[in-house]
What we know:
With 128 residues, this protein is an alpha/beta fold. It contains seven helices and five strands; from the N terminus they run E-H-H-E-H-H-E-H-H-E-H-E. It has one domain (2-127): 3-Layer(aba) Sandwich (Rossmann fold), CATH 3.40.50. A five-stranded parallel sheet has the order 3-2-1-4-5. Strand 4 (110-113), helix 7 and strand 5 form a beta-alpha-beta unit. It is globular, with a radius of gyration of 14 Å.
Amino acid sequence: xxxxxxxxxxxxxxxxxxxxxxxxxxxxxxxxxxxxxxxxxxxxxxxxxxxxxxxxxxxxxxxxxxxxxxxxxxxxxxxxxxxxxxxxxxxxxxxxxxxxxxxxxxxxxxxxxxxxxxxxxxxxxxxx
Length: 128
């Protein structure tokens, strides 16, 4: 299964946070699954990191490099992803989450999230 992790899950997995659920750990550690991350997540984290670097154990550069070294596939943002946002229901206003939802729908990837609002979107979104 192809899995796109949302920004929180990427950070929690990278930092081995106790906040990550056992179901998320199981899916992430399953070698049969192809793990992806969006450049939108690196962008979002970069903004948060710039505001309060002391709150994180890892920098955006370290996060990206670690993900790539651990076999994650980087998903670029394409015009078709951006255009798909306009067709999403207005359940959630966060632009980073909305691009992840659109990317997962367009690419046929399951989006893993811990966010209740994101999980309300129809399609391949799975709350873990």
